[in-house]
Amino acid sequence: MDFVAEDLAALLRERHQTVSVVIPARNEAATVGDVVSVLRRQLVDDVQLVSELVVVDSDSTDETAAIAADAGAIVHRSADIASHLGSHPGKGEALWKSLFVTTGDHLVFVDADLTSWGPHFVTGLVGALTADPATQLVKGWYDRVLDVDGRPKSTEGGRVTELVARPVLDLWWPDLAGVVQPLAGEWAATRALMESISVPTGYGVEIASLIDTHTRHGLDGIAQVDLGARAHRHQKDHDLAVMAAELLAVVDSRRAGEPRPIDVAAQELQQFTREDGWRTRPVPLVQRPPAREQVGYPAGAR
Ligand SMILES: O=c1ccn([C@@H]2O[C@H](COP(=O)(O)OP(=O)(O)O[C@H]3O[C@H](CO)[C@@H](O)[C@H](O)[C@H]3O)[C@@H](O)[C@H]2O)c(=O)[nH]1
Ligand SMILES: O=C(O)[C@H](O)COP(=O)(O)O
C-alpha cells in the first residue's frame, strides 16, 4: 500500500498525535545535509507530517552538526543530552538520548549515511505504524545495494543482516524469520514502546528492540513496510565483524526472554591480518535501562 503524506498528516491531526524524526549521525558530513534538507522541505515545510526533525550528533569530529543545522534540523550533541546520565559512544546511545529531547508520540529513525533513498521512507514507516493500533514497531525493508571495492554493483548488500542477524533469528526466534531487514536503520516505533525497553548503546539497538518488542507484544506488535531500494556508505569487513560480535552478545542476552545483564568487561574480538598481526577490538556492550525509569525523563513529553 502507498501512503500519502497529506492524508497521514490529516489523520495524525485528527488523533492529536505527532511524529519526531531522529537521525543519528557520526561523521556524516557528506550525506547528512541531503537527508535533512529533503525531509525538511517535503515533510516539515510542504506537508506538516513531521513535527520535529532532530539530528543527534554522535561524537562527530567533522562538520556534521553544522551542516545538519544549516539544512534545517534541530541538532543535539548526544553527550550533552541528559548529561547527568553520562555518555557512551554509539548509535544506540544516540537513539536512547533522543527520547529526552523529542516529544513525538511516534518516533521515526533514519540513518544519516543514505545515498539512495527518499522521503517515502518516513511516510511509509508512519503509515504502517499508524495503520493498526496493535503495531508498536515497524521495520523498513528494501533492496540492499552493495557497491564496494570496485566490484560490480549488486543487491547483495546487508552482509551482517544476511550472514548473522537473519540466521540467528531464524534459529532462536523463528517467528521473526519473516522480517526481511531486521537491522534496517529506517524504522519507527511508538514512544510508549521506546521508553519502556533497554537499549544497547552500540549497533545492537535494532536487533534488541525487535526481539524485545516480540517478547512483550508478540508478532502483532511488529509490522514491516516495503520502501523500495536503499544504498548507504559501507563499512569494512573487520568493522562489520565487531558489529556482528555485538549483535550476537545482545541476542544471546535475550534468549531467555527479558534481557539479562551482559558481562561488558569480557567482550573483545581478536582480528588478524598478515600486514598488522593481531589486533584487539573492544565490543561495545553497555545497555541503557528504559528511559522512562530515568531521573529527568520528560514524563510529560507527550
Ligand atoms: O557511533 C555511532 C555509529 C554510527 N552512528 C550513525 O548510525 C547510522 C548507522 O550507522 P552505520 O555505521 O552506517 O551502520 P551500518 O553499517 O549501516 O549498519 C546497519 O546495521 C546496524 C546494526 O543493526 C544498524 O544500526 C544500521 O542502521 C544499519 O544500517 C549512521 O547514520 C551513523 O552515522 C552513530 O550515530 N553513532
Ligand atoms: O545492514 C547490514 O547488514 C550492514 O549494514 C552491512 O551492510 P552492507 O553489506 O550493505 O555494507
From TrEMBL:
Pfam families: Glycos_transf_2. This is Glucosyl-3-phosphoglycerate synthase. Residues 275-302 are annotated as: Disordered. It comes from Janibacter cremeus. SUPFAM superfamilies: Nucleotide-diphospho-sugar transferases. Belongs to the glycosyltransferase 2 family. Gene3D superfamilies: Spore Coat Polysaccharide Biosynthesis Protein SpsA, Chain A. The lineage of its organism: Bacteria, Bacillati, Actinomycetota, Actinomycetes, Micrococcales. Its EC number is 2.4.1.266. Keywords: Glycosyltransferase, Magnesium, Transferase. GO terms for molecular function: glycosyltransferase activity.
